[in-house]
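Lab notebook, design round three. We kept the backbone fixed and only want residue identities now. Task for the bench partner: fill in a sequence for the structure below.
Input structure tokens:
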């Protein structure tokens, strides 16, 4: 599925909730459904800088696509990272780098996150894009 279709799907899912407490509950539910990250990936190399809570992000390059897995020790952040994985995992580095990440704005996440969580979100997206750049350059050779 292409990235924008996934983003549109997420926007539709959040549109059924009128109240932000319900949206937070849904985020927590999404985070709880995230598969646990293998302990071997919970290393300082996979820890995202700039997040107040601990977030580990693992990226693997398989058949031209990047597969992401992640985990966080904070419930809402875990929900946010599960959305990012859903959008970016199993996509090519080129598609990841070309993406306009509009679902964050459309569902109201940016305006309803605390400043520290917003900074963490920016750091997570930045790390995903850095992985995309690294895999793109590595496979250019």
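Proposed sequence:
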């Amino acid at each position: 599925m292409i990235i924008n279709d996934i983003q549109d799907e997420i926007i539709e899912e959040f549109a059924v909730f009128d109240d932000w407490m319900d949206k937070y509950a849904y985020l927590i539910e999404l985070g709880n459904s995230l598969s646990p990250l293998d302990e071997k990936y919970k290393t300082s190399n996979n820890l995202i800088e700039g997040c107040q809570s601990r977030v580990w992000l693992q990226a693997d390059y398989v058949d031209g696509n990047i597969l992401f897995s992640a985990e966080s020790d904070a419930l809402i952040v875990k929900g946010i990272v599960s959305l990012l994985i859903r959008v970016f995992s199993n996509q090519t580095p080129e598609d990841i780098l070309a993406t306009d990440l509009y679902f964050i704005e459309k569902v109201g996440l940016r305006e309803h996150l605390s400043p520290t969580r917003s900074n963490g979100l920016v750091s997570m997206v930045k790390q995903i894009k850095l992985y995309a750049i690294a895999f793109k350059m590595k496979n250019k050779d």
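Keep this in mind before ordering anything: The chain has one domain: 3-138.
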